[in-house]
Amino acid sequence: MSVVSDNAEPLAIVFEDDGLVPNNILPFLVYQGAVKLDSRRPEATIENLFEANSWGGTWRNGVYDYLHYHATVHEVLGVARGSARVRFGGDHGQELEIKAGDVAILPAGTGHQCISASDDFCIIGAYPPGSKMEITRPTPENHTKALRTIPTVKVPESDPVRGKDGPLVRLWKRR
Hints:
The chain is of the alpha+beta class. Helix content is about 15%, strand content about 25%. It has three helices and nine strands. The radius of gyration is 15 Å and the shape is globular.
C-alpha cells in the first residue's frame, strides 16, 4: 500500500528576491495531505518515503523561529505531527498553515521562519544527495554570496514524495 495520496499534486509558488532573501526562480512546492501517516510511526513514514526517493540526511525537529535560508542545498520538510504557521519566501512571502501529512519542498535560497506551532509539532527534513546544508541569515553580504551559489545547486533527480517521475522533476527543469 502506498503512503502517498493518489491526487498528490503540489501547489507551486515562485517567491521574488526581496534584496535580503534571494529565494529562487524554481517554484517552492507544497503538497497538502500528500502522505498517509502510520499513526504509530508518523516520523518513520516520512523518513522512509524521503529515503526511498533518494533524499537523505534526515532529521526530526521543528522550523527555526528566525528567518533563514539555505543557499547551498534544496530542502524538503514533511510534517509528521501537529501543525505550524510558517512564513515562506521571507518577510514579503506567504504564511502557510502546514499540518501532519503535508510536505514542503524549498528550492535553495527560499526563506522560511516558524511563526507559531502546536505543542506536538514535528517535522522531518531531508536533502538531495551530495549537498551540504548551511543555515544563512538574511544580510546584504549573505545575499550577494547566495546569488553566486544558488544557481550552482544541482536540480534533484527525484521528487521526495513522488519519485523520479514526480512533479518536482517536471517543474524544476532549468530554463
